[in-house]
Amino acid sequence: MKGLIIDLPTLPEEGKEFVGEIPDAVFDLPPKDAKPVGPLNYDLWVQRFESELLLTGSLSASFEFTCVRTLHPFTQTIFVEHAAISLEIGNSSQIDATEALREEVLIHFPTDPRCDDADEPQKCEIDPKYLAVDKPSEDDVKTRPRDEGDDRWSALDALKKSDSEP
């Protein structure tokens, strides 16, 4: 897989600009998480400071999230406009910055993705038939029965009975 490899012997002392993209396979996310729908794009200025490599610039990548309210999928692009990544150089002549770029995008994921924050915002309202308050009795949503053998509540009921007994 193509990534961002920085060759230190050819890096000018004043730094160098790196612009490109890394295929979306770099994210390698579990199936139930967000799904990348495009590459990780970068526009970075890379400069060496003694034993450290500093990358500054912008990153972006598009993902398909599931809305926490409507449970509908939507696409949102994560923009990191002022990225600043520091990497230790060590004894290497080449530095692979791919994983650091990946992590920088992932930490900017929304905590609770909502479709009104999408690239093309959608109406983000909970379907009233799923609300417990003012739920009409004639709706078609079935209430899930307790699992057979689930006695978690009976333990609490026993406590309540023992408190009321003299």
Structure explained in plain terms:
The chain has two helices and seven strands. Strands 2, 3, 4, 5 and 6 form a five-stranded antiparallel beta sheet that branches. A two-stranded antiparallel ribbon has the order 1-7. 15% of the residues are buried. The protein has one domain (5-129). It has 166 residues and is mainly beta. The mean pLDDT is 85.
Topology record:
Blueprint lengths: L4 E3 L8 E7 L12 E2 L3 E10 L2 E15 L6 E16 L5 E3 L1 H9 L45 H13 L2
Antiparallel strand pairs: 1-7, 2-4, 3-5, 4-5, 5-6
Provide tags for this entry.
166 residues, mainly beta, five-stranded antiparallel beta sheet, two-stranded antiparallel ribbon, 2 helices, 7 strands, 34% strand
Indicate the low-confidence ranges by residue numbers.
none
Average pLDDT works out at 85
Query: What is the share of helical residues?
Result: 10-25%
How do the SSEs run, as a string of H and E? EEEEEEEHH
Describe the global form.
Answer: elongated
Total tally of structural domains: 1
Q: Give a quick account of the main beta sheet: strands, pairing sense, barrel closure.
A: 5 strands, antiparallel
Q: What's the gyration radius in Å?
A: 25 Å
What is the number of beta strands?
Answer: 7
Q: Strand content of the residues, in percent? A: 25-35%
The N- to C-terminal Cα distance equals 73 Å
Count of helical regions: 2
Class of secondary structure makeup: mainly beta
